[in-house]
Amino acid sequence: MGEQFRDTYRQKGMRKRLVKELRKKGIRDERILDAIWNLPRHYFLDIAFDEWAYKDQAFRIDCEQTISQPYTVAKQTEWLEIEEGDKVLEVGTGSGYQACVLHLLGAEVHSIERIEQLYLQSKKRLEVLGYEEIKIYHGDGYEGLPNEAPFDKIIITAAPPEVPSKLLQQLKIGGIMIVPVGANSDQKMYKITRTGSKNYRREVLGAYRFVPMKKGTN
């Protein structure tokens, strides 16, 4: 599959240390830790930066976007409470790493990316890695995917100033949305559970830092 998609003993060793670190930081769902172990994160970075792949920190990718910190990926995923067969909408494909973690947990993943360059890169990467079952769309995340709704779970990997109403409407009753909300200096992670046709329960999960969620496509 090319130099970028080699997985050496050294890289496996670094990934093993990362999984131990995430467990120490409080990630309890062993399925998520197994997914992170089984999914080489360096596949999702430029080959020149593979040294950074297994540090527990976010890292810049193309188009002024980031691949999220591994702990954040694991924690957002844990809060989603993924069950086998869940239909999940991810808003913000980015590198495709988060989508692959969800897929490895048995979810049916639909991921939308507003930046065409990232969409094309991720689509090709996932095809090469054999993850064609993950469905990636080029579109406006604020609009979601109404033709695929409702979703059991929705995860947003960029921060809107407020929760997009159209995405709330695409969540099934009993479904969960995990979303960071707010300006750069004051973002809070929310867990939103749809409890009725017009009713939602909101929980604040803590302070986080994500790139802003923008409207439209590019």
Average pLDDT rating: 93
Portion in beta strands: 25-35%
| Unreliable residue runs | none
Helical content (DSSP H or I, runs of 4+): 25-40%
Which secondary structure elements does this structure contain, and how are they paired or packed?
Layout: H1 9-24, H2 30-38, E1 59-60, E2 66-67, H3 70-80, E3 87-91, H4 97-104, E4 108-113, H5 116-129, E5 135-138, E6 151-156, H6 165-169, E7 171-183, E8 186-194, E9 200-207
Parallel strand pairs: 3-4, 3-6, 4-5, 6-7
Antiparallel strand pairs: 1-2, 7-8, 8-9
How would you describe this structure to a colleague?
The structure is a single chain. This protein is of the alpha/beta class and 218 residues long. It contains six helices and nine strands, in the order ααββαβαβαββαβββ. The strands form two sheets. A seven-stranded mixed sheet has the order 5-4-3-6-7-8-9. Strands 1-2 form a two-stranded antiparallel ribbon. The longest helix has 16 residues, at 9-24.
Task: Describe the structure in brief.
The protein has 218 residues and is α/β, with parallel strands linked by helices.
